[in-house]
Amino acid sequence: MTVKRFCDNLTVSSDILGEQLKFRNGKLAQNRFLKAALTERVSTYDPENPQKHGLPTEFILNLYDKWGHGKFGTILTGNVLVDPVSVFLKIFSIIVFIQTNLESAGNAIIFKEGDGEERRALFSKWAKNMKQDGALAVVQLSHGGRQTPITVEPNPWSASDVKLSGERRFTAFGQPVPLTVEQIKTQVVDRFVYAAKFAHETGFDGVELHGAHGYLLAQFTSPTTNKRTDQYGGSIENRQRIILEIYDAIRAEIPASTGFLVGIKTNSVEFQEQGTTVDDAKEMCQVYEDKGFDFVELSGGTYEKLAFHHMRDSTRNREAFFLEFAEKIRPVFKNTIVYLTGGFRTVKAMVEAIENGATQGIGLGRPITAEPDLPKKILEGSVASSIKNALDENDFGITNLASNTQMQQMGRNSYQQASEK
Ligand SMILES: Cc1cc2nc3c(=O)[nH]c(=O)nc-3n(C[C@H](O)[C@H](O)[C@H](O)COP(=O)(O)O)c2cc1C
């Protein structure tokens, strides 16, 4: 069957994309491709039973069995949540859950109340499937904060009490409750650290903190959502504090010498009034570089202002949505590896972004739900771009839905079963 692609003729060599990336802690990625985080939403959902809540399913294992044969340098999970149960009370022997901060029902979750052999075995299998052809396996650790759907939690945590306006992905959002300083430690920092240790112990090569797209950590760094007047609000230094505390606490448990990666996905821009600007992002990235982060993945936008399309004509020809922001930020990175995600479709644009110095690694999201082995094909020189479907590329809603559907299809059988068909 012939498929339509963005570009049919390979006019540049893809060799540079096959080059290894060496992280500052010595770990090697076999090439420059990053499978971006794509929320799967097919884990178990049972908030009344911690042991059965947020467990990865066969479906996820099948999905990553396929990406695990796609020749990525690094594979990220979809967001894995760290806070399913913030307050956990036992009243007359009945367990009452008061807070649960997911990105969606069906997220995979790592939390101490749900620890056990079954969860550990499933996460270990997940990591193993991701690493089958040499990729590094990295868990994206996330906390929904005010972007938790109202059906999951009417009063989620946030930096401040700024409610998200409107609806996204057919869901509304509740009135957030600002975390106290004590809760920042016990309900956020400690939970991220616990999840990182769990990931390390179950065979993953690292974690990526989700500090982008308006989730909890971005609610702290962005002035649109952080109105605090204590040590976690005001200056950039204060707004970034929670992330650095998480980093330090993870490194106290899992030192860089173990080879375990700690990275962050961060917004290069938010396109919102009072939102993170590229200058803010540059200042924050300088701190990540100085702190010792192994990698930074640059992205942009929030639920209130989605940015997974071309906001400016200047980026259209160069494909990557955040390219011009990445170019401004890039000079701060000396030892931290930088990935750029969003919009890459042709080998030519990927190669140029690297040659021009905007990024070292290429993150791919929607193209690899249509074609889980796209990096392999590109590195073999057999394709010049990703598949072009009939949908409007600039419509995130519809292309997101298409990716979800493709993931549903991919998860139905294993790599082996699909190959035998
Ligand atoms: C179905 C879908 C799920 C996504 N889930 C996540 C997620 O869990 N975490 C995240 O950081 N980004 C998520 N994203 C954003 C992607 O990682 C990526 O940044 C975005 O799709 C732009 O890249 P692309 O143009 O290559 O698709 C998701 C995107 C899609 C389409």
Automatic annotation (TrEMBL):
Keyword annotations of the record: Flavoprotein, Oxidoreductase
Pfam family for this entry, one: Oxidored_FMN
Domain NADH:flavin oxidoreductase/NADH oxidase N-terminal: 106-381
Gene3D superfamilies in alphabetical order: Aldolase class I
GO MF annotation terms: FMN binding; oxidoreductase activity
Superkingdom assignment: Eukaryota
UniProt-recorded name of the protein: Protein CBG09249
